[in-house]
Amino acid sequence: MLTAFQTCIPVFIRGVNTVPVDTHNARQQGALPRQRTARYIPVMTAPGDRSKIRLAIPSKGDILESTKQLLSEIGMDVQIHNPRQYVAALRGSDVEVWLQRPADIVRKVRDGDVDLGIVGYDLVAEHGGSEGNVVTVHERLGYGECRLAVGVPMSWTNCYDMKSLRQRASARELRIATKYVNETRRFLLDHGIENYQVIKMDGALEASTQMGTADCIIDLVSSGTTLRENLLKEINGGTLLSSSMRLIVNRGRISGESNFGDRLRDITKEMLERIEAHLLGKDNYNIIANIRGSSMVDVSRRLATQENLRGLDGPTVSPVVPPADSEDGMYAIGIVLPKEQLYSAIQQLRSVGGSGVTVLPVSFVFPQHCKRWIDLMGVIGRGSTTLPEVKVASP
Fold first, then answer.
1. An example Gene Ontology cellular component term from the record (predicted)?
2. 0.85 exceeded by pTM
3. Cα distance between residue 15 and residue 30, in whole Å
């Protein structure tokens, strides 16, 4: 049984003011404050107010685990010393890692409270603002793929595209449940739908149509199973955007003329290059094989006749030192190629005399230049968007 003291004290859980059930009389008597909707208030700080670079990542769920896995695979593990705290460290760097709600990641990068963030594009589009403070460093980190789409009841048999949805809205106001208010309004405006009401909800949107609180929803969809299990369907032309996880940075922070700005550019470039090289490496195999030939030129020419044996920048050919009782003329070759070309490459290797084929995974492939970094420097006004010229010394 609750005591009189307990019934008069609101409980605060992560910024949400929750009140015990039997509070009507207490509120009338002034014992309880009125409930208010929690809102995000950014804390504006200047680079001089703190010395450590801040990276924000999602605080829980599969998306947190996938983010930690990516950072671990590139050698920048997230080190969480206390699971009850929301701040961690990035191995090998002087970077603070802040575990945050995904929507707050975008807001805090936008307002400069954190410098870097890993978050879905859907939230960047919704909360990034029109000032250009949020800049994309890498637009596709390889996980979190989904789409923001309209879901209507399956019972609406005559509603199958945006035109038929507009016709339905012209006859009766549409109640649309979503947490993407800005994107929803932009999308409906583009499709000429004006007779609607947006109902902002943060979770379990699929149930709102069956509860009668909304007519349709706009929410994230991956496989579509959740929609179907709640008797909802997508419609043609009803996709607002495609989303996946991306790396973002605050424009003012990374373009700043200060020691902090220099350090942020250094860590951002390192993280970007590690990510880009790792994602490229994951799509490739390293093939090592032996092949007999009269010379390296002979072996190279035979490899060049096969479409899938040219590698990223051509095959590596080197002589093999044979055992004392073996013939000369054995060469080792190394080729890095896309995974989908593996079996055809094996067949082609065999056709030109290859043997002892070994296939290894590739962790990283670093190109000569990081084009995304060059593009980023151009976006923030700190460099050319063209690749630097490579100077080769004359023989």
1. cytoplasm
2. no
3. 22
Please tell me the CATH superfamily of domain 47-140+245-280, with its number: Periplasmic binding protein-like II (3.40.190.10)
Q: In the structure encoding, which two tokens stand for residue 343, read together?
A: 């079996």
DSSP single-letter state for residue 109 = H
Token digits of residue 85: 């705290």
Tokens coding 337: 């190629």
Q: Does domain 146-243 bear CATH number 3.40.190.10?
A: yes
Nearest to 112 by CA among 245, 259, 273, 260: 260
**What does the longest C-alpha to C-alpha distance in the chain come to?**
102
User: Residue 61 and residue 73: Cα distance in Å, rounded?
Assistant: 19
| pLDDT one-digit tens code per residue, 154-206 | 999 999 999 999 999 999 999 999 999 999 999 999 999 999 999 999 888 99
| Structure confidence at residue 1 (pLDDT) | 44
- Using DSSP bridges, classify how beta strands 174-178 and 196-200 pair: parallel, antiparallel or unpaired: parallel
Could you say which architecture CATH assigns to the domain 283-361? 2-Layer Sandwich (3.30)
Which residue intervals of 132-236 are DSSP H helices? 162-171, 181-190, 208-211, 225-229
Q: Which H or E element spans position 278? A: helix 259-282
